[in-house]
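To close the chapter, one final illustration. This time we ask the reader to focus less on the individual chains and more on the assembly as a whole: which components sit near each other, and how the overall shape emerges from the parts.
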Amino acid sequence: MQYTVVFQPAGCRGLVSAGENLLQASRNLGVAIEAPCGGGEICGKCKVIIDSAMSNLSPLSEKERKVLTPAELAGNYRLACCARIYGDVVVFVPEQSRGANQIVLETGRHVALELKPAINLYYVELNKPTLEDFRDDFARLKDALLSRFIQIDKNITIDYRVLLRLPDVLRQSGWKVTVAVWNDTEIIAVAPGSESKAYGIAVDVGTTTIAAYLCDLVTGDVLTQDSMMNNQVRYGDDVISRISYCMMNDDGLSLLQQSVIDDINTLVKRMTGSAGIQPDHVFEIILVFNTVMHHIALKINPQYIGSVPFTSAIRESVTVKAREIGITIAPGGYIHCLPIEAGFVGADNVAVLIAEEPYKQDKMTLIIDIGTNGEINFGNRAGILSASCATGPAFEGAQIKFGMRAAVGAIERVKVDPVTKEPEIKVIGQNTSDHEEIILAKGICGSGIIDAVAELFKAGIIQADGGFNKSIKSPRIRQGPDGKFEYVLVWAAQTTIGQDITITQKDVRAVQLAKAALYAGAKILMQKQGINKVDSVILAGAFGSYIDKENALVLGMFPDCNLEHVVAVGNAAGSGAKLALLNKDKRIEAQVVAQSVQFVETAAETNFQTEFFNAMYLPHAKDSFTHIQHILDKIPQC
Ligand code: FES
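The assembled structure is written out below.
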């Protein structure tokens, strides 16, 4: 039995099977609904309004009764992942539930390197076959290569697809060809005449976004870069939701794999189009990602990464023909995935390390990569320790009442006047030149929530233990529907959602938990190294580039450090992928790094709970923060 579902205001309609839920239906019809928990009935963000008979849907679930307010229940609100379809329905997706495209930071630190790609082009002129010299075409080509280029492996092979075209290409070119050779061991393309076009792409597949860089393998130039949302977001915001989706649906892994391959192919097409080159001149792609994204892209069951002892199918680098996993580049082209470090610490962390090279320095460096999952590395040339921190999605705007991704309409900067207690906000999109109208706030993203909590602390509105200072009198400080205190950041009239955007006590707690996880992880790594101070902090990842580093230190996201030695390097994982694309020695370095970095399971350390508890305070219960003491001294004692 099938029913018609219409999603408004997009106006998308289609037939769905009886029993399918509204979230599944929206995905099938290409309507984006926020679903941070991936339809797991946990986050409560997938609220929709039913504009037709409620009787055509399954009855209200317990979860919905708990999450939806009385006013929402009276207004025909449902959770899209709970409501199953048993008749024709018209659904309105309210502003706050609409999926938004994230703004992606694509620039990493500029890193100089020697050009040494895995793909090289060789021009050769062959003698035509005769009755006296009747060597086969491949032997003739191989001999010509070996006689002119000593670096070529004497056991060089040829890709099957290239072999299929070889006889024609040789004859049509008058026996003058350019050969693309991979690692000097395999012919992966043969083109007529003299050719100097060889390209590669470095791709950082994040849980939420994908960033790609098209590079010229002959000059080493980055020709263009592009990025897009990882469309797997439709199936859940974090890696656990993606694993669950694969486990709970027979075709789950196939769907998720196809989704990410489609995204990569889209980026290949867009970038080669904008650079004016043919996709079959792209000979190699380097992929970096966390372990779950790695397994899904390679269509390996990710289930066992998600449970103790968090084992991956493989840690070493993986090299396969791009066509094997459906990526459309040169028919003989390769993809190379950098190695995985351990469990949840994936090839993206290895890429960050080969870009920043803390293992070649004397100073003790703390690298924090705050993505959907938090990864930290600490050490120097004497040794690097790494850990994965369960920061939760608070820094990405999830678990926050009005949290959203860093997209147009998100509050990204907050200042609070310590005297008047009035806020000043900056909304993404507000100063974009092609927007003449004022962009109203829709929610708050990760950098905004860091600012908001730090500024409320600096203004004396919340205290070191995270609790609201109840003695302050301000119309912005009030008790919320749950009886707990909250701060009104934006009044309803200045929003697109028609509700006051507040920072609730629960939001503050979520930020405290996330930052405490990072800080406690860093402290454990410092203790293991026998070090009590960090010389420098590197904030990697898009989020790290957007946050106000002073406010991050005021919150105690990382141990005290001279702010001049705290640097944001942007997408360091993308930079590492580019390095590995342009210099194959970096792949060997990645292999060595992945093996030599010592992974610490911080949560299993006996003092983790104590460190975590102390780190719940702003900025910390015990540790001193000399570099921001002047700011802490100014906090009004109301
Ligand atoms: S509660 Fe429906 S997607 Fe999270």
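The pocket of FE2/S2 (inorganic) cluster is lined by residues 23, 35, 37, 39-46, 79-81 (CB under 6 Å). Residues 505-529 form the longest helix (25 residues). With these observations in hand, you are ready for the problems at the end of the chapter.
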